[in-house]
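From the shared-data thread, chain only:
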Amino acid sequence: MERLIAAAGQLGVHLDVSQQRLFKGYYELLEAGSEAANLTGARGWERVREELYIRSLRILTPAPGGFASTAEWFMPTSGGAARKVLDVGSGAGIPGLVLKLAVPGAEVTLLDSSAKKCAFMRRAVMTLGIAGAVVVQARAEEAGHDAVHRDAYDLVVSRGVGRLAELAELTLPFAKVGGIVIAAKGPDVDEEIAGAAYAVERMGAAPAITQVVRGPGLAPPDTLVYWFKLSPSPELYPRRPGAPHKRPLLRPAAAVMTAGRA
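Structure, as tokens:
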């Protein structure tokens, strides 16, 4: 636990005794759940701590320029409203439930299409007694048109869900204007970022800002990709289930050729 406490501390989070107990309890649920349903490939305390917990907390690394989404950013706004966070493709609650345990003041929605994984997350939320965490079983393509979720979140996070051109369409419609999407990716994402530029523009966001995060923790580096929402996403998006994956939004060939001749 000391390594987790220290890693959180590096990111401005003090894990009190109650939070430490919750992380331990969540680990025990993950271990039992993975035995029964293969929820995650990370097994054993050291791997869960490094690959799931600390790696998820890296999202709290200050973005280039020193803003969002640091632990301080999650403090209630001047009007007293809690930050609203959506985790798209949450799986067993990674990274959304980890963030909730670290910054309890946030309101977190965990979205996944798998009934098995949603059942686990509901059980975890209930067993651990976590208030302000909601599990939604739905595809992002469908939930993105639900007025409860569309344009509703200050922060949308996703880890390991598709290529960036697909992910832009599956995440940005959920973000408020002025909100942020953070996609946690591996190394060598320059080609993906370039390929996603048209989709990001169509969804109403500024061009990507990226940073490579090498710590805390012992897991390999992550590339955090930040999209800042500037205007509402067109009502057409996201398209019907499966379309963002099968036909990601890419810049029309004619436009690419014109740009190449310029």
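The chain has one domain: 2-261.
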